[in-house]
Specification:
heterodimer; A: alpha/beta; Rossmann fold; six-stranded parallel sheet; four-stranded mixed sheet; B: alpha/beta; 28% helix
C-alpha cells in the first residue's frame, strides 16, 4: 500500500517547503545553476538542434538495445574485461561481494554512481566489514551525514558551508585547518587521498557504454573518478543496460550537451574512457576490470512503448532544477533514489505504480521538465499517464473514485451541472473552512465564492 | 576468472526480455534538419589558448626544443621540492636532462607515480581547439595515474597535434582506443562546486595544468 509512503511524502514536503533556511540554500544553488546553463547554451548556435541530435542518438540506442549491448559486451571481453549481467539488485550486489571476498578486498573507493544507490551497495559492502569511501565531495559529505544524495548531480546542494564546517570538525577533525570553501575542499582531499592509495577496489558508475569501442565513459570534474579507476588493483563499473550508445563519435554531441545542462560547462574537466584492465604495455592501472550491467526493471519499462523514452535519460539533473515542486520541497522529501520529475516517473516504473503513484501528483503540470530535457523525454505527460494508469488499475481511494463519478455524472448534463455549481457555491459560502479544504486553506486564503455564475454574467454583460 | 560474460542465465533472460519488449515499436519524433552543433573554429591556436585560459590552464608557446626545455625548467623551478614523474619517452628524456636538474625523477617505465609526486611531465595524443582540451592515453602518455596523481601536470605538445573539435579528437581516440585501457579528454584543472555552488580549483586531481606547445 502506498499509504505510509504518501504520508511521509506529505509530511516531509510540508516541512521543507516551510523551512526558510532550506529555501534560501536551494534557491541560491538553483539560481546559480540557471545562470551558468543560460551562459553555456549560448555556445550552441542552435540548442534545439543539439537536443534533437542527443534525442536521436539515445532513441537509436534504446530501440536497438539488444544489438548494442551485445556489441559492447563482446568488445569489453575482447579487451580482457569481464561483463556480468544482473537481472536485479541482489544479483549485482552479490557479484561484487563475492569478488571482494575472493580478492581479499578490505576497502573500496567509489566515484559517484546513482546506480549503486539504487541497489543499496554501500550497506551491503559494509555488512561484509569492507570500508567504503565516497570520494566525490558532495557524496562524501552526505555519506558522513548518513544521508542519501539530495540531488543526482549535486548531492549536497541542501547544505550551507556552516553545516559542512560543523560536519568536518566532527568527522575529520585532523584534516581541517580552516573554514573557507578552499580549506574545506582541501580537508576532504587530504582525508580521501590516503584512502585512494590504500584501497583494493575502485567502484564507479558509467555515464555511457560505448558499443563500437567497448569502453565506458565517465564524466567528473574533481578527478576522483580518475583516481578511483586508476589506483586500486580492481575496477568495477556499474551501469544500467540503458546506458549504451552506438558509437564513440556520439560523444561529440553527448559530452558537451551533458556538461551544458548538468553544470553549464562546455565540457566537463575529465571526460574519461576506460576499456579494460591495464595492457602489457602500460606501467600502472587496475589488473582487473569488471562491468556490471543491471536490468532491475528496465526491460519491463522498455516494454511500455509509451514511457520507453525514460530509458533515454542521461541523468543530467536539469528536470530537477527546473521543477517548481523540487525547488520547494527539495530532494529528500521524495523518499526515492531518483528525485524530481525524472524520479517521479522512473520510481513507479521500476518499483511499482501502486506504491509510488502519489509522485505523479508532485507536479504542477507546468511542463518545464519536458522543455529542459536534453533528450526530449516527455516527463510532464508521463506524470499524467501514471495518473491515468493508477485509475485504470483501480489504485485510487474510493472517495476519489466516487467523487469523480459524481463529477462526471454532473458534467454530462447542463441542468445537473448548473445545479451542482449552485450547490457548490452555497457550500463554499456557508462552510469555507471545512476540513476537506484544510490542506489548501491552512497556508493560503480561499478566494471568495463568486456571486454570479459564468452564464449569468454572460447574459448580463454579453460578449464583451 | 575467465574472460567471458558472467551469469549466462541472467544474460539470456535480460536479452530475451529486451527483444520481446522491442517487438512493439516506439514512436520516433519527427527529425528536424540537423545543423552544425557548433560554429566552426576560425583560428585554432588562438582559440585553444583562449579556451585553456577559461579552463584555468596555462599555455606556453615555444619556437624550438631548446625553448621548450627552458619553459619546462621554469615551470619545474616554480614547484615545491620533491620528486617528479615523467613519461618515459625519448623526447622527454632529452628535455629532462636539461630541465630537471637537481630534482629526483621517476620514469614511467619504473611503474606508477608516487603519492608524493610534485608533478607529472607527459606527452599527449592531441590538443582540441574548440574546448581547450588535452587528449591523453594510458599507453601513450605515461600510464593511468600520470595525468591525475600529482598536483601539477605538464604536457609537452606540438602545434601540429592541434585538432579543431571533439569530432576530430574522438576520431583520434578511436584510432588508439584498442591499444589503451584509458583514453581521456582533460579540459582544465581539477575542480568542484559541491559546497554552495562555489567553484574551487584543485579538488582531487591537478590544481595546475600547463601545456607547452612547440610550434
Amino acid at each position: 500500500m502506498s499509504g505510509d509512503l504518501l504520508r511521509q511524502f506529505h509530511h516531509h514536503a510540508r516541512e521543507k517547503a516551510q523551512d526558510p533556511a532550506h529555501r534560501k540554500t536551494i534557491r541560491w544553488a538553483i539560481d546559480t545553476y540557471d545562470a551558468a546553463v543560460a551562459r553555456g547554451k549560448t555556445r550552441f548556435p542552435d540548442w534545439e538542434a543539439a537536443r534533437q541530435r542527443s534525442y536521436e542518438i539515445k532513441w537509436e540506442a534504446v530501440n536497438h538495445l539488444d544489438r548494442y549491448l551485445e556489441e559492447f559486451e563482446a568488445k569489453v571481453i575482447q579487451r580482457g574485461g569481464h561483463v556480468f549481467w544482473a537481472a536485479d539488485s541482489g544479483q549485482a550486489r552479490n557479484y561484487v561481494l563475492e569478488l571482494a571476498r575472493a580478492r581479499g578486498v578490505k576497502s573500496v573507493v567509489k566515484s559517484k554512481s546513482m546506480l549503486t544507490e539504487e541497489i543499496a551497495l554501500n550497506p551491503a559492502l559494509e555488512r561484509e566489514g569492507i570500508k567504503v569511501w565516497e570520494t566525490d565531495l558532495g557524496e562524501f559529505i552526505v555519506q558522513l551525514r548518513h544521508e542519501p544524495p539530495y540531488h543526482i548531480v549535486t548531492p549536497a546542494m541542501h547544505l550551507s558551508r556552516g553545516q559542512v564546517i560543523d560536519l568536518f570538525r566532527e568527522k575529520i577533525p585532523n584534516d581541517v585547518i580552516g573554514d573557507s570553501h578552499e580549506e574545506l575542499v582541501a580537508a576532504a582531499r587530504r582525508a580521501l587521498r590516503r584512502e585512494f592509495f590504500a584501497a583494493d577496489m575502485g567502484i564507479s558508475g558509467a555515464n555511457f557504454l560505448v558499443a563500437d569501442t567497448g569502453m565506458i565513459a565517465i564524466t567528473t570534474n574533481e578527478g576522483n573518478g580518475r583516481l578511483c579507476t586508476s589506483l586500486p588493483r580492481i575496477h568495477v563499473a556499474f551501469a544500467g543496460i540503458e546506458k549504451v550508445i552506438p558509437r564513440l563519435q556520439d560523444l561529440a554531441t553527448l559530452w558537451p550537451v551533458l556538461a551544458t545542462v548538468g553544470t553549464g560547462q562546455h565540457i566537463t574537466a575529465y571526460s574519461t574512457l576506460i576499456g579494460g584492465p591495464r595492457t602489457p604495455q602500460e606501467n600502472d592501472g587496475p589488473v582487473e576490470f569488471h562491468v556490471v550491467l543491471l536490468d532491475n526493471g528496465r526491460s519491463r519499462l522498455l516494454a511500455d512503448s509509451e514511457q520507453r523514452d525514460l530509458l533515454q535519460c542521461i541523468r543530467c539533473g536539469a528536470c530537477l532544477n527546473a521543477c517548481p515542486v523540487y525547488r520547494n520541497i527539495g530532494g529528500h522529501a521524495y523518499g526515492t533514489v531518483y528525485q524530481g520529475p525524472l524520479g517521479s516517473v522512473l520510481t513507479p516504473a521500476l518499483q511499482g505504480l501502486a506504491q509510488y503513484q502519489h509522485l505523479s501528483y508532485a507536479s504542477s503540470l507546468c511542463g518545464n521538465c519536458t522543455s529542459v530535457c536534453p533528450v526530449k523525454i516527455d516527463l510532464a505527460h508521463h506524470l499524467l499517464h501514471n495518473r491515468r494508469n493508477a485509475v485504470q488499475e483501480g489504485d485510487r481511494p474510493w472517495r476519489e473514485r466516487l467523487g469523480m463519478r459524481l463529477w462526471r455524472w454532473a458534467m454530462m448534463d447542463r441542468r445537473r451541472f448548473q445545479l451542482a455549481g449552485r450547490m457548490g457555491r452555497a457550500l463554499l459560502r456557508a462552510f469555507g473552512g471545512i476540513s476537506v479544504l484544510k490542506p489548501w486553506t491552512e497556508s493560503r486564503e480561499l478566494p471568495p465564492a463568486p456571486t454570479m455564475t459564468f452564464r449569468e454574467r454572460w447574459r448580463k454583460n454579453g460578449a464583451r | 576468472m575467465e574472460h567471458a560474460s558472467q551469469n549466462p542465465g541472467a544474460r539470456e533472460e535480460i536479452l530475451s526480455r529486451v527483444r520481446a519488449a522491442l517487438k512493439k515499436t516506439a514512436q520516433r519524433r519527427e527529425a528536424i534538419a540537423p545543423g552544425p552543433l557548433f560554429a566552426p573554429v576560425a583560428n585554432p591556436l588562438e582559440r585553444f589558448q583562449a579556451e585553456c585560459a577559461a579552463n584555468f590552464m596555462e599555455t606556453m608557446l615555444t619556437p624550438d626544443s631548446a625553448a621548450t626545455a627552458a619553459a619546462l625548467q621554469r615551470v619545474l623551478a616554480s614547484l615545491p621540492p620533491g620528486e617528479i614523474f615523467l613519461q618515459d619517452a625519448p623526447e622527454l628524456r632529452q628535455l629532462a636532462s636539461a630541465a630537471a636538474q637537481g630534482r629526483s625523477v621517476r620514469w614511467s617505465s619504473a611503474g606508477a607515480p608516487a603519492e608524493s609526486s610534485q608533478a607529472t611531465v607527459s606527452l599527449c595524443e592531441a590538443l582540441v581547439a574548440m574546448t581547450g582540451s588535452v587528449l591523453v592515453s594510458s599507453a601513450g602518455c605515461g600510464g593511468r595515474g600520470a595525468s591525475v596523481v600529482a598536483p601539477c601536470h605538464i604536457v609537452v605538445a606540438h602545434a601540429v597535434q592541434l585538432v579543431l573539435d571533439l569530432e576530430a579528437a574522438l576520431a583520434r581516440a578511436g584510432q588508439i582506443a584498442f591499444d589503451n585501457s584509458y583514453v581521456g579528454l582533460i579540459s582544465g584543472s581539477s575542480r568542484t562546486a559541491d559546497i554552495e555552488k562555489r567553484l574551487i580549483i584543485g579538488a582531487h586531481g591537478p590544481r595546475r595544468l600547463v601545456v607547452i606547445i612547440e610550434e
